[in-house]
């Protein structure tokens, strides 16, 4: 049995984290829109800021992924979960 290195594991984890953040960002956007429609503009702005912060985080994670040679081509793990 082959032992996975930290880099091997990160080549699987980093794309997962970016995808996960994308889905959470979509959720944040949905809730920001609802909050804004109900007049909670400051709350909506904070959620918008969270989305922007996650986009910056994703850029950093993508750079880290590039540094280690990209995603593991043999691993295609997709899952969806929702937080309604």
Structural description of this entry:
There is one protein chain. The chain is built from 2 helices and no strands. Helix 1 (6-37) runs antiparallel to helix 2. It is elongated and about 55 Å long. The chain is mostly helical.
Note the main attributes of this structure.
2 helices, 84 residues, mainly alpha
Give the total of beta strands.
0
Average pLDDT, all residues: 90
Poorly predicted regions are: none
Classification by helices and strands: mainly alpha
**How many helices does DSSP assign?**
2
Query: Strand portion, in percent?
Result: under 5%
Radius of gyration: 16 Å
Topology as a string of helices (H) and strands (E): HH
**Percent range for helical residues?**
over 70%
Query: Largest sheet, described in full?
Result: none
Distance between the termini: 40 Å
Estimate the global geometry from the Cα principal axes.
Answer: elongated
List the helices and strands and how they pair.
Blueprint: H1 6-37, H2 41-67
Helix pairs in contact: 1-2
Quick recap of the structure?
The protein is an all-alpha fold and 84 residues long.
């Amino acid at each position: 049995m082959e032992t996975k290195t930290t880099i091997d594991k990160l080549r699987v984890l980093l794309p997962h984290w970016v995808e996960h953040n994308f889905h959470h960002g979509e959720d944040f956007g949905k809730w920001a829109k609802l909050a804004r429609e109900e007049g909670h503009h400051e709350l909506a702005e904070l959620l918008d800021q969270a989305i922007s912060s996650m986009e910056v985080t994703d850029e950093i994670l993508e750079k880290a992924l590039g540094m280690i040679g990209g995603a593991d081509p043999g691993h295609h793990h997709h899952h969806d979960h929702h937080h309604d």
